[in-house]
């Protein structure tokens, strides 16, 4: 039976990030994909033009309507836009206690545009982070959550992941995509595991939505695998292949998307 997997996130009309990327990653990883939208984002490969946040009670209505009908086997949470939407999501998590919740703490797009109000970082850290199973911050997000400068070296990752665990995150996947050169190394930390996951750095500017894709693939795979390390390792392989396959795409003039391909093509 394919798992039913839900994305709670914002939109990307160019199909590279947000809900659109998540649904593609869910399908490519064997899950049935569903979505609750938190914000409509006028964005493309070159950046964000405007954000229209969804009313928090409408986010609640979307979630409650869905969860009253459908068994949800895993949840991926991405862009939440503001503190009121964070609170709405927290209330629903408390009420329905869905299994296997992954939080990608989306704050700023690759283009530099903010996708979370600065004053909402506290709500994300204090209210949401302790209620999820895995968080997947990139280096700037990890620094923001901890209120410290960005780390600059792979060797600093274990200590920073430990500080993130101390905030209440059960598992942390600290993503090192923003380091210069070499391999693209992430660190999975928590629950007795501390494991570096390296991959060859793919030479491409098609890196729009890499974080969305990775967290969505993890959520899709977790109900189909025995634990988080198994799901995370496989999702990282999937992402690297999707980055490689992006050379088959011609989408936009900026940071292009990764390609979610089916292996039987
Ligand atoms: N050029 C690349 N080649 C291979 N993997 C990459 C590359 N860029 C990013 N990644 C991987 O993509 C994932 C997300 O990357 P990162 O850029 O750190 O996060 P975000 O997209 O949230 O900013 C991580 O697993 C990272 O290691
Ligand atoms: C709706 C939405 N969610 C997340 C991202 C971040 O993606 P990235 O950092 O890879 O640009 C984005 N650009 N848009």
TrEMBL record:
Q: Which reaction does it catalyse?
A: 4-amino-5-hydroxymethyl-2-methylpyrimidine + ATP = 4-amino-2-methyl-5-(phosphooxymethyl)pyrimidine + ADP + H(+); 4-amino-2-methyl-5-(phosphooxymethyl)pyrimidine + ATP = 4-amino-2-methyl-5-(diphosphooxymethyl)pyrimidine + ADP
What EC number(s) does its UniProt record assign?
Answer: 2.7.1.49, 2.7.4.7
What Pfam families does the record tag this protein with? Phos_pyr_kin (PF08543)
Q: Which domain of life is it from?
A: Bacteria
Domain Pyridoxamine kinase/Phosphomethylpyrimidine kinase positions:
12-259
Ranges that cross the membrane = none
Q: Keywords assigned by UniProt? A: Kinase, Thiamine biosynthesis, Transferase
- InterPro entries in alphabetical order: HMP/HMP-P_kinase_dom, PM/HMP-P_kinase-1, Ribokinase-like
Coiled coil located at which positions?
none
Classification via Gene3D superfamilies:
3.40.1190.20
Pathway field:
Cofactor biosynthesis; thiamine diphosphate biosynthesis; 4-amino-2-methyl-5-diphosphomethylpyrimidine from 5-amino-1-(5-phospho-D-ribosyl)imidazole: step 3/3
- List GO molecular-function terms, semicolon-separated: hydroxymethylpyrimidine kinase activity; phosphomethylpyrimidine kinase activity
What does this gene product do? Answer: Catalyzes the phosphorylation of hydroxymethylpyrimidine phosphate (HMP-P) to HMP-PP, and of HMP to HMP-P.
Q: Give the protein name, as stated in the record.
A: Bifunctional hydroxymethylpyrimidine kinase/phosphomethylpyrimidine kinase
Q: Say which species the protein is native to.
A: Saccharopolyspora griseoalba
